[in-house]
Amino acid sequence: MRCSDDTEAARVRAALEEHIRLTRAEAGCVSFHVTATEDPLVWQVAEEFTTPAAFEAHQARAGASDWARETKGIARDYQIKGMP
């Protein structure tokens, strides 16, 4: 996740704790970590789910959440690995 400025980064920081809590509570979530990098505008996200369906459910829930509203427009560059 790459913010373009401090305002976007503040939005991420304000919503992140609840997003992590809700994601880790989801059925099928094996692990979910969001780590700050040396760049205060960039976070590394690593997530693992038991099945593609569990990941899809996460995407649906997160996409309709406060997290999605608060981080709308913030760049995400990710790869999905290990899913059929």
UniProtKB/TrEMBL annotation:
Q: Which residues form the ABM domain?
A: 8-68
Keyword Ribosomal protein annotated: no
Q: Which GO terms describe its molecular function?
A: monooxygenase activity
Oxidoreductase among keywords: yes
Q: Which InterPro entries match?
A: ABM_dom, Dimeric_a/b-barrel
Q: Keywords for this entry?
A: Monooxygenase, Oxidoreductase
What is the official name of this protein in its record? Antibiotic biosynthesis monooxygenase
Q: What species does this protein belong to?
A: Sulfitobacter pacificus
